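User: Could you write out the 3D structure of this protein bound to zinc ion? I've included everything you need below.
Assistant: Certainly. Input first, then the structure.
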Amino acid sequence: MFGADDRDSHDATPPGYVTGLACVEKGCREVLVIGMAPWGWHYTCANERCKGSLPAMPDGAPKGKPRTQKIQSHRALAHDAFDYLWKSGYCTRSAAYRWMAQVMDLKTKDAHIVMLTEKGCLRLARLVTEKGPGTSFWDRWPDKGKKAPE
Ligand SMILES: [Zn+2]
């Protein structure tokens, strides 16, 4: 781990602040530095022309590993599609993850959106349409479980 750059050591930083996080945007070799936004701490790329960013916890610790904006937006899309299954009450949350493991040929422990590639995210969103509620696959799927309590 590298020390904080002089240019961002002027402000008080939160206890969870991590330095030396590499920006992973394509072609960027800068690091992510923490800043305070109206909604809380977050990391942005030291290169102002780069869109690299990473959300932070309330104590300033990074939320997950650095990832590109592109994969972040793909994962948000996949989450919206996937969460619809259990948030709309079609199945329980844990059943939704078992469904995901089955339709994507994953082990249950690997069935997490954070582990998906861009292609995997798009595939999951498509599968919600192709094998989700309203399809014969869903109707025949035996593992739906009871509706999650409100
Ligand atoms: Zn960057």
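Strands lie at 21-22, 31-37, 40-45, 53-55.
User: Perfect, thank you.
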